[in-house]
Amino acid sequence: MERGAHEVLDAAYAAGIRYFDAARSYGLAETFLSSWLGARGIPPDAVVVGSKWGYTYTANWQVDAPAHEIKEHSLGVLTRQLAESRAILGSNLRVYQIHSATLDSGALTDTSIIDALAREQSRGLTIGLSVSGERQAETIWRALEISRDGEPVFDTVQATWNLLERGAEGALAAATDAGRGVIVKEVLANGRLTNRASRDRPSQATILAREAERLGASMDAVAIASVLAQPWATVVLSGATTVAQLESNIRARAVVLPPDSLDRLSAMAMKSSEYWRERSALPWN
Q: Is the pLDDT of residue 200 over 70?
């Protein structure tokens, strides 16, 4: 697994990718990333490494485990997991995010957590949050209001936006306007905007497939290009797990979407509630 991860990271670096995203709950992602950086002799200032706290991985590599991770947004978990991330990544850790913050998780209203994050920010760590669920936009708006000593606490926002789920678009644009970095995740809707989409969502897949054929590109490249076209998107995550997937994703940089293409693709959008209901039913991989 580590060798495979290093192969994908090598391909990404060779292609000019310089942001790498991990989390404490992503199995051994931080360890694999750290060993790759060390083996390749890549200095901390050559890349930006982001990680997240708030979930503890519990599946022990068993796909059918009864629970894959435990979510807890508490000061104790923040303190423990930040120490763990730093022990693995050292000075490579540049961005640290709350993992899947929601309005009801308590992370944004716990003053001890906000104070601790603000202290880390004052010491040079970029502080952010990732959001999830149909209330992504509300969570982002709330985060944009949080400050300490007159300075915003959250420097970055990571959210789901893709051709099926566009609910957070206004909040992400506001984040950019406020000077925050925007990291876009799940741009392929957990695989639903690739060739497998033809069986999962045939009507939307037809729109995407026709546009891909019209542009002479693959479905995943067109889907990612639609995110790259958004003026508020600072970083767009691939999520590729193989070199072949990564190479296909990277071709999105050569896809130019004219306004009429974007208009046709916008017809693929779903209600956020429907999107997240379907997403919750997807099998764990």
A: no
- Distances in Å between the Cα of 5 and the Cα atoms of 9, 36, 54, 243, 244 are 6, 8, 23, 9, 13
Q: Please report, in angstroms and rounded to a whole number, the separation of the first and last CA atoms in the chain.
A: 14
Amino acid letter at 244?
Answer: A
pLDDT, tens only, 32-89: 999 999 999 999 999 999 999 999 999 888 888 888 899 999 999 999 999 999 999 9
Structure tokens at 39: 């083996």
What's the pLDDT tens digit per position in 162-186?
999 999 999 999 999 999 999 999 9
